[in-house]
Every structure is written in C-alpha cells, then in structure tokens.
Amino acid sequence: MSERTATIASRVGLHARPAAIFAEAAGELDLEVTIARQGEPADEAMDAASILSLMSLGASQGDVVVLRAEGTGADEALDKLVKILETDHDAE
Amino acid sequence: MQTFSGVGVAPGRVLGPVRQMPKPIQEPHANVNIPADVTVESQAQRIKDASKAVQAELRERAANANGEGKEVLEATALMAADPMLVKSAIKLLKHETPGGARTAERAVWEAAATVAETLKALGGYMAERVADVLDVRARIVSELRGLPAPGIPASEVPFILAAEDLAPADTATLDPAKVIALITSGGGPQSHTAILARALGLPAVVAAAGVDGIDDGTEVYVDGAAGTITAEPGEELRVAAKVWANQASTLAAFTGDNTLADGVRVPLLANVGTGADAVKAAGAGAEGVGLLRTEFCFLDRDTEPTVEEQIAAYGAVFAAFPAKKVVVRTLDAGADKPLPFLTNADEPNPALGVRGYRTDLTSPGVLERQLEAIAAAEAAHEAEVWVMAPMISTAEEAARFADLCHAAGLKTPGVMVEVPSAALTAETVLGQVSFASLGTNDLTQYAMAADRQLGPLATLNDPWQPAVLRLIKLTADGAATASSASGQAKPVGVCGEAAADPALAVVLIGLGVATLSMSPRALAGVAAVLKTVTVDQARELAGIALAAPSAAAARAAVREHLPVLNDLGL
Question: Closest to B125 (Cβ–Cβ): which among A15, A20, A27?
Fold first, then answer.
C-alpha cells in the first residue's frame, strides 16, 4: 500500500473545477485510489475518482488529505495526483 | 393548416420548427416484483451503460458550450458516471439490501437521492449542486426507460419551445439565442412561462390546448399578441413574420421622456431586482424604477442579510438612476416566494397567509432593519427614493408603515394595492401615504379568486376582467380625492404585468394611472402605442373597457380602436 499526504491548494477547496480535474485524473488510472481526511481511518476512505465523494468530503484550502493506492505504478500515480491537489487551479 | 388558440402573453410574430419539452420524469415505483429471469448482473450493466450514455451526451454538449456553462456541463458529465453513484445504485439491486431488490430505475433514483441529501446537509456550494445531481438522476432514469432526456431540448437550429408549462428551473437553462417563442398548453397570463417570456422579449402564447401534442419539427407560426398558433402556415403568415422581424428592430429603441400624442407626460419605469438589472434598464431608456423587488437580496438564504449587505444591494440599483425615481418595495416573502427565516411553509393557504407586509407581525424587526438600510443607501446616492409595502389591506396598516418609514428618515412612503380591500378603501388608505402602486398580478388573482399558476383558470386570471379594471378605477379615483383633500399629489402607478400590454397600458392611463412600470423589454412597444393617443382618447377607451361584458370583449373592443397595434404586431 502506497500512501501520500497532500495539502489542498485551491482557494475554493476541493470542489467545482479542482474536484473535476482531480476526479478525472484519478478515473483515468488503472488503479483504485482512495482519499480521506488526515486522521480518518483508512477503511472510511472514499473513491478518489468520484466527484460526488470528493464534494462530500468538503475539504477546504489548507486541509490535509491522505491518498492511498496499491499495485504497480501506485507511487508514480499518487505523486501525480498530489501535484494536482497542491496546485491552485483557480489562479490559472 | 391547423390553428390553436390561447392567451397571448408577449407580442411578436415568428415562424419556426416546434420542439417539445419532454414531460417531467416520474418517480419509479418502489416494491416492484422483479421477474426471476432478471439478474442483478444484467441490471447492473444497464445502469452502467445508461450512465455512460448520459455522460457521453453531456460531454458532447460541453464541447459545444463556452465559459461557465461549459464547466457546469463538464462537472455534470463526471457526476453522470460517478463510480460512487453507480456502485451505490448497483448495491440496491441486490436481494440482501434492506428493503429488498430494486429495479434499475428505482435503484438510481434512491442512490442519487442519498447523495443529494448528503450534499444538501453540507450547505453552501455543495447544497447548490443538489440540482445537478437530480438533473443527472432524471437523465439516467430517462435513458433507462428509453425516453428523451428531460430539460429544454438541445438543438442546432432555433426553435419554438412547446410544453405543458415551464418551471422556474427550466427557465434558467433556456437559451434565448435558440428558443424564439414559447407555447404552452397550461399556465396563465401570470405563470412563470409568461413572466419569463416578457423578461426575455420572446413571443409567447399560454393556455393553448393541444400545443403539447404538436409533432417535433412541425413548422408553426406564433402570434404572441393575438394568442394564436398556426401549424404549417400559408404564404400570408410567412410574410407577417417577415414584416414583424423588420419592425422589431425599429421598435427596439426607446429613448426616455415618454409622452402621449397631446404632450402629456407618462413616465415609463422599469421593474428590476438587482443592480445589474438596473443598469440594463437604464440602458433601455427606463425613466426610473417603478418596482425594485428587494426579495432577490433575501432569497436562497437561511438567515436575514445584514444591513450592510442590503445597503450595498440597494445602492447598486440607486447608482444606476441618479436624480431619477426608484420605488423600493419592502420584502415580499410568502406564498410563491417562501423564506425559511420569515415564512411558515405549513400554511394551508399561503396566498392568503402571512406574506408581504404581514410578515412584520410574526417576525418584527426585519422590516425596520430593511428600512434602515434603504435610508442609508439613499443617503449615499442621488436617486429619489420612494418606499412601498406589499400586501397592504387596511388604512391602519398603511398608517403604521408610513410611521415606520418616517422613523427611518424615508420621506415618501406608499403602498402596493394588490388586495381588493385596499382598492375599495383607496381614499382612506391614500390619506395615510404619499402614493400607491397597483400590483395587477395579485390584484387579479384576489379579485377573481383564481390562482395565478393554474392553466384552467387563465381566462379568469386576466387583468382585462372588467372587475379588475373597476378596482383600478376605484384606486385612481380614491387617490384623486385624497390628493384634493390633502393638497398633495398622490399618484397611482401600475407595476404589474398589465403595464407591459400596450393596449391595456392605454386603458390604465385612461383610468387615471400616472406612471407605468414594466419589464425593460416592453418599454419600446408601450411607448410606441401611447404616443398615438391623447388623454381624452385613453379615457374614452377606458370607458369602453369598463362597460364590456367580459375580459375578451374588453380587449377586442379596445384593440379595434387602436389599429396601430396591428400595424406594429403588438
């Protein structure tokens, strides 16, 4: 199991366009990636490819989340997803 | 040629193909016995296929959209095939799920409802997305049933939208570049369809039985003034549509300073809700604001806006009309405009309930804070601010409202006349305040005891009803008597949809109304007709309308005396 933490950079938090960009990227992977708030049990983590789950997570700018995935290429995939979360998409 | 007739609610003569609005999706039944040969796997596959198909369609629409609309469609497309949504729907197909196995349609319905509830509970931005989730749900269920997707149909070419009636939610997605006219089998002159059509300047006919059965693609001619729809029209009507198209472009310019043929000034004002509306209205030549609907500042909120927020919202409107009149209507919540912190949703009869000025009885303080904000915004701008209370029924209420206005430092208090009792006692009511404004939509609904939204009552719900015209005359006469008694002018305006009907506008002036306030789109048409009549002619036409035996006869008789209406296609 690979694991990464990421700090939400987008000003609006993890919804609207930033959530759409992230869910789409997670959905294109051949791995199942989960997302949870830091400190929450791993078995309550949600599907990172679900925009509805991301929205119900309600993560704001500055909140820390944990991404988890298993399998070949998991580390590279998670690094890529962390980068998306740590970019302020509203600033573009 | 087949002809349908209804109530014309917004003028214009256009020709185009019909597209039917799909019927709203019905909730799939729970507790349906599922045949033994239907497997969970096959149903799960149906859900996956339907969600993918909806996603593909939304993506295609996103590709053709721009800006904010594109982003919304892209996000909605992602929701359509959302893995969490699809998984929770599939779970509901299984026999071991509490409540037993659901049909694919029911499973999607319930799974999306659960998601919607979660988002609603989160509030704010998430709660606003509930509508998107429910839209996606309706699309997937339609796909599963093999029905067309709900909502306004997507089309490459401009079309005439036919429906039973439109809901406020449909109107938000209506693209005026694609929809050239609205025709409905239900609804009335005051329905959402009618109000939307006037705001967008789209020709519209409501309560035209049978139009929801016209085949998609059929070419029809719509005359929004006459209230007729003709399928497969002949050459004569094709020419009429062309002539209208040319005239519409010349009608578009209203430059302010409206006068009758004899030079009598009749200021034409605009109905607005926001600062952005006010800027547009000023651009359309409006000589001021006859109705500022302040509830737009309050709607979709769980709590009362602060005085500071209100000052900014009202100030944005005042700024668009320096040295011009702006009539502010205090909060008009209740009935079709509920507010969680002000109105009780459980009233058995909300149109007759605690609404408008009456909410001050149950939630004291809100009105006083609003008046404080209006006074502060007035002090910061050049506009001449008048303030009126909605749903005033008695002279006592008028007097108390005037006291509240004076205490807040507002110099020109007035009342809306919407309740027949206020029209009948106009002289005493106007004795307490400086002006009155007739809200003809509600006045008609109360005088005729006919709900504004009900299609079958459309003929009752018509401001041309002689009973309504008499109440208008009583109000104008009462105000005139109160003016002479006090030595102060007490003008009566009209800010209902009636003012936007050019023929009725002439009658209103003849009945003694001093100013007319309307959707900015209607200004040019009303001005073009008013400039052809004198006050004396208007009075004569008002007499004809008052003496008519029915609304239809009143309208027909007045129109016959105003050939300019037909020349202009109004």
Answer: A15
What are B517's strand-pairing partners? B269
Angstrom distance (rounded) from CA B201 to CA B434: 33
DSSP reduced 3-state for A8: coil
Confidence (pLDDT) at B244: 84
- Chain A hits for B85, CB-CB cut-off 8 Å, are 50, 52
Instruction: Write down the architecture of domain B40-145 according to CATH.
Output: Orthogonal Bundle (1.10)
| Whole-number Å distance between alpha carbons of B440 and A58 | 46
Closest Cα in chain A, distance from residue B43 (Å): 21
**CATH architecture group of domain B2-20+156-241:** 3-Layer(bba) Sandwich (3.50)
pLDDT band at A14 (very low <50, low <70, confident <90, very high): confident
Res A26 pLDDT > 60: yes
Q: Is-catalytic flag, B192?
A: yes
Contact status of B124 with chain A (Cβ, < 8 Å) = no
Q: Where does CATH 3.20.20.60 sit in chain B? A: 251-568
- Number of structural domains (chain A) is 1
Look up tokens 């509508």; give the residue: B131
Q: Where in chain B is CATH 1.10.274.10? A: 40-145
For residues B307 and B370, give the distance between their C-alpha atoms in angstroms, rounded to a whole number.
7
Query: Starting at the edge strand that comes first in sequence, how are the strands of the sheet with A64-69 ordered?
Result: A2-7, A64-69, A34-37, A46-47
**Does residue B390 contact residue B446 with C-beta atoms inside 8 Å?**
no
Q: Is B71 on the interface with A (CB under 8 A)?
A: yes
**CATH superfamily for domain B251-568:** Phosphoenolpyruvate-binding domains (3.20.20.60)
Q: What is the pLDDT of residues B111-127, one digit of tens each?
A: 999 999 988 888 777 77
Statement: residue B298 has pLDDT above 90 = no
Catalytic residue among B29, B192, B381, B406: B192
Predicted pLDDT at B171: 63
* Whether B74 and A52 lie within 8 Å, measured CB to CB: no
Cβ-nearest to B82 among A17, A51, A58? A51
Q: Can you say which residues of B are annotated as belonging to the binding site for phosphoenolpyruvate?
A: 293, 329, 441-442, 452
B8 vs B372: which has the higher pLDDT: B372
Residues of B in contact with A47 (CB under 8 A): 83-84, 87
Q: Which pLDDT tens digit goes with each residue over B478-493?
A: 999 999 999 999 999 9
Which residues of B participate in the annotated binding site?
A: 293, 329, 418, 441-442, 452
Residue B103 DSSP one-character state = -
Please answer yes or no on whether A27 and B125 come within 8 Å at the CB atom.
Answer: no
CB contact under 8 A, A17 and B133: no
pLDDT reading at B510 higher than 90: yes
Percentage of chain B exceeding pLDDT 90: 66
Other beta carbons less than 10 A from residue B213's beta carbon: 10
Q: What is the ipTM of this complex?
A: 0.90
Residue B340: both structure tokens together = 């969680």
